[in-house]
Amino acid sequence: MGAQRSIHAGKAKIDVNVDFTHNLCASLMHNTFRNAGNPLSLLIGSEKLHVSCDKGLYDSNVLVAFRRPREECLAHQSFVVQHSLSPEIGIHGIPIKNFSQSGSGGVNLSRLSVGMDLNEPASSKWSSTTSIKFEHVRPLNDDGRNISRDCDGFPLTCSGSPHDSMVVLKQESRYTKENDHSFFHFNLQIEQGIPVLSKWIIFNRFKFVASKGIKLGPALLLTRLSGGSIVGDMAPYQAFSIGGIGSVRGYGEGAVGSGRSCLVANSELSLPLNC
């Protein structure tokens, strides 16, 4: 349980973080409720409630997770409710300062998701998470009002209404290999929009990121390959954007372009500066 608050002068970002974690311990229960044949002992005995809230100058995120820890050989379940609000600058941002930065285009995304995560037992190098969630996305202007088109008159949602709804089945796999001289990371995400209702978004989307780092004396050579594609219905905010740190340096987020598919390869050599 804790709280954190950061305030800076000028235009710096203000961060407020509140984290509350509560363990429902079986030892606090009456003996009659800790009977192995009583369903309450299975429901309450090893549960964990996690609540966190992050507030920035222009964005916010509230997360409530109810986790059910299990043995290491079994998958861990989490029931999650999350709401976030953030500016959408990757697709609807406005390039400024000769495309080196992306400013707000007056479009913010309000996302509400409710669902379940299933974390598979991790091997020595592989780990994976499967989730199914209902998502409700609403574009808002800077005054917090619903909007369906941007400043140029283009639609902001796939449905054409002020909001999009979808049920998303997601599989994420991660691979990590590290030693004293190099590392290799690989991440693959596959999403499927489930056709529960005809008005909801139906799509197939995948995204991958592979990075390799090699230590060359005091320097570090980093090579990165990322890409993805989406088939089916696509809301503008689901498009892949190119530009920014981790994509194309020197350009703002999304300043290079965006679309249904993308492939980006880059290499960087980092040298320490001794003062």
Automatic annotation (TrEMBL):
InterPro entries xrefs: Bac_surfAg_D15 (IPR000184), D15-like (IPR039910)
Location in the cell: Plastid, Chloroplast outer membrane
GO cellular component: chloroplast outer membrane
GO biological process, one term: embryo development ending in seed dormancy
Short name of one Pfam family: Omp85
Keywords associated with the record: Membrane, Plastid, Plastid outer membrane, Viral envelope protein, Virion
Domain Bacterial surface antigen (D15): 106-273
Name of the featured protein: Outer envelope protein of 80 chloroplastic-like
Species, as recorded: Trifolium pratense (Red clover)
Biological classification of the source: Eukaryota, Viridiplantae, Streptophyta, Embryophyta, Tracheophyta
